[in-house]
Amino acid sequence: MTLRSRGRWITALGLCLLAVVYVRAIWFTPIEAGQGGAQKIFYVHVPAAWSFFLAVGLVGLSSVLYLLMKDDRFDRFAAASAEVGTAFGAVVLTTGPLWGKPIWGTWWTWDARLTLTLFLFLVLVGYLLLRGAVHEPGVRARYSAVLGIFGMVLVPFDHISVYLFRTLHPQPIVLKPSAPSLPGSMLFTLLFSFLTFTILYLGFVTQCYAAAASGEGASNVG
Amino acid sequence: MWAEGTPATGAYAVAAYIIAAAILLTYSVILYRRGSKAP
After folding, report:
1. pLDDT tens digit sequence for A166-186
2. Helix (H, G, I), strand (E, B) or coil at A78
3. Considering the domain boundaries, does residue B23 fall inside one?
4. Residue B36 is part of which domain span?
5. What's the domain count of chain B?
6. B12/A26 CB distance under 8 A
7. Residue B16: which of A34, A35, A41 has the nearest Cβ?
8. A32, A41, A121, A220: best mutation site toward chain B, by most B Cβ within 10 Å?
9. How many domains does chain A have?
10. pTM, whole model, 2 decimals?
11. Averaged over A48-73, what is the pLDDT?
């Protein structure tokens, strides 16, 4: 089985599991009394944020490895992960305001978490624009690696920004030092969604990498 | 299913689910088509 078809199968599995997540979240997970139905946005928003951070983290890690080893495969993987990260970032930045409007009374507020997440998304967009603008492969890989590492450094800062600053954004309820503070059925749906979004990330990045490796999409992905 | 006093905010969740699915499905199609063009 080629890398491309492997990526397609993983993506197809991820999309099927996403349908299961929707069914489970809508019909088989209790409604939170304080927020109503809008709380269910959480089962898409938080796992999408996880995949977004995972993508940015792996862009940075691959960039470090590229600078150390000068192996084009790391550069290609970083480019693929950055592109996939923008898709998950778009999900995070559209579903978040849809939760904020009914719960906070506003679509957007310039607090630390939201602003940093938007900035991180724009770093990824800038990363892709940079790759499109520089044509010499070695220079492109080196410049974009520096930007990729910068993005990776921002990820933990974004995650702990809710502790460092006074912010409207809720604090982590799963990825935190103490035990997750969610009822069992909600936690199961959330963890299942985390798994689904991780599989989707793997499927997307495999396809994107395979397309770049075979030469197609070189202008976009490198 | 709905407890007394629970806010009726489900429409926002429906919109979020539709938008998330649209983004992910569109990106899946883009990747599929890009892969199909590859040699």
Report:
1. 777 887 777 666 777 788 889
2. helix
3. yes
4. 12-39
5. 1
6. no
7. A41
8. A41
9. 1
10. 0.92
11. 97
Q: Is residue A178 in some structural domain? A: no
DSSP type of residue A10? H
CA proximity to A126, closest of A56, A65, A77, A62:
A56
| Residue from B12, B19, B30 whose CB has the most chain A CBs within 10 Å, to mutate | B12
Domain that holds residue A123: 3-21+39-171+185-221
Q: Which residues of A touch B31 (CB under 8 A)?
A: 7, 11, 204, 207-208, 211
Token duo for residue A56: 């940015």
Q: Is residue A190 part of a domain?
A: yes
Which residue of chain A has the CA closest to B33? A211
Q: Which residues of A touch B2 (CB under 8 A)?
A: 31
B24 within domain boundaries: yes
Is position A196 within any domain?
A: yes
Q: Kindly state whether residue A28 falls inside one of the protein's structural domains.
A: no
Q: Is residue B4 part of a domain?
A: no
Sign of CA dihedral A179, A184, A185, A189: positive
Q: Give the residue among A9, A192, A16, A210 at the shortest CA–CA distance from B25.
A: A16
Contact call for A94 and B16, based on CB within 8 A: yes
For residue B2, being part of any structural domain is answered with no
